[in-house]
User: Fold this.
Amino acid sequence: MDRRCEQYPELSGHAIHIVFIHGYGGDATQWQYQLNTFSSDNRVIALDLRGHGQSDKPGGDYSMARILIDLERALDVLGVTSKIVLVGHSFGGAVVTEYACAKPNRVERLILIATAGEFRLNPLYRILLRLPLPLLKSASSRLSLTFFLASTNMVFILYVS
Assistant:
């Protein structure tokens, strides 16, 4: 990440910082259309994760903890001090989710695209999700099942069809 970090001037006014994180095997160039679309009113940043695209390819640590440190360091180098909108695709979604859980005060919005992951559920909702499908469908037709990720303010709504 360090090789290709460039400092962009702050946009006037209260521009939103939108940070795009690609998936495994991708790179920052996959966001070219989103960068073009959102850059007129916002500061947009697309990073190459460690070992991808134009970033360094060190022989060592590619752990999630290391990737989160890389993301935090890049935001610091780029002078991003306000809350950010994080956009993650595929594995990038896991990265931005982990970052949002670790640094909830830095994240304004979290956008996940084609992302899978493992999340800790409230034990009550874990029980609800184990109900037989016909019973769950019956219950869901009468009420909206909403649950919260542990220790975050993210809300998931379960729809059963």
Confidence is low (pLDDT under 50) at residues 1-12, 144-161.
